[in-house]
Amino acid sequence: MATILRPLTDADAADMRHFLYLAIHVPEGEAEPPLSILDTPELAVYYRDFGGYRADCGFVAVDGEKTVGMAWARIMDDYGHVDDETPSLAISVEPEWRGQGIGTALMKALIKALKARAYRRTSLSVQTDNRAKHLYERLGFTTVQERGHEAIMVREL
Known about the structure:
The protein is 24% helix and 29% strand. By secondary structure, it is an alpha+beta fold. A 4-stranded antiparallel beta sheet has the order 1-2-3-4, sandwiched between helices. It has a 3-stranded antiparallel beta sheet with strand order 5-7-6, covered by helices on one side.
């Protein structure tokens, strides 16, 4: 892996929207949603005012000057919300960079950072047909709830 991981900074705020959009799972054969979907309250909670709360933390994978992946967590009432003490996370990697261990490295760094902040667990939401679900399972996440084609997964820290 030629990429370098570094902490997410205020300078990365604009890229958060891009990587959040990449995190939206679009089943094969379906149309991608418009970019304006990121402005809905359900998705804006992932990036608005990021960095202003204790649980807000994240990592960026860069190759040279190009950001190729991003993972972040915060306590929010999102799709993966389990309680007000558990940070939910979001992660995505540029499509051409997937399958190279970048997602795994980002997740491990984020898990380590949340543990260092004394959180007991973290959560996420994933579509059950999303290949990323296997990554989460390999990293110790377990499904605690399923709603239709969506699973809420938790990992103890």
